[in-house]
Amino acid sequence: MPIQNPMNCVNPENRKRVLIILLILIILIFSIFRFLDSPLRTEAAPSGIVSFELAGSAEKTNQILASWDTRADLFAAFGLGFDFLFMVVYASTISLSCLMVSAKHTGRFSSLGTWLGWGAILAAILDSIENIALWNLLIGKTVPYLPQVAAWCASIKFTFILLGILYGLAGWLMPKKRA
Fold it and tell me: How many domains would you assign to the chain?
């Protein structure tokens, strides 16, 4: 039995509606994250929480944390927790998009959609590991490898997310292929 996309459980008749709901949720969650990220943008963290995610070293992480006040720390903590909801939403959205595109096409391009659907799930798992590492840094744990763990997980996560989005866009723009 071939590997199936993780969102294959969604009834084909409902996939478009589910995707629209997920896209609306992404827009709403992005709006909340934009608000939460505002106090996190400092000279040491020009990209806010993303700077923290990708810091990669204890020195850079400490500079970012020192640039945040108590309010920013609270926003970062809430954002890390809220991100767990976002993980479910973005992984489901990307995976479902990959499923819908792979159903529209044939051959290797279609098969790639199954793998990228699972890649979206892997991105969410890596995101959760990253958030646990960042949380520990935020509460003051001084484990030297945590910034590297967070940065590696974030880099791989962003790669899988980007690949899934590019696959979805490319498959949507490409003409439908018949077997």
Answer: 1
Asked if residue 55 lies in contact with residue 147, where contact means CB atoms within 8 angstroms, the answer is: yes
Cβ atoms of 150 and 53 within 8 Å: the answer is yes
- Read off the pLDDT band of 106 (50, 70, 90): confident
Query: Can you tell me the distance from the alpha carbon of 49 to that of 150, in angstroms, rounded to the nearest whole number?
Result: 12
| 36-91 residue pLDDT tens | 999 999 999 999 999 999 999 999 999 999 999 999 999 999 999 999 999 999 99
Q: For residue 33, what are the domain limits?
A: 14-173
CA distance 54 to 103: 35
In this structure, is residue 127 part of a structural domain? yes
Q: Is residue 120 part of a domain?
A: yes
Tokens linked to 118:
């699972």
Q: What is the pLDDT of residue 175?
A: 80
Q: Is the pTM of this model over 0.85?
A: yes
Is residue 164, in this structure, part of any structural domain at all? Answer: yes
Return d(Cα 42, Cα 113) in angstroms, integer: 38
Going by the DSSP 8-state scheme, the letter that residue 176 receives in this structure is: P
Which residues touch 167 (CB under 8 Å, ≥6 apart)? 97, 98, 101, 112, 113, 116
1 occurs within a structural domain: no
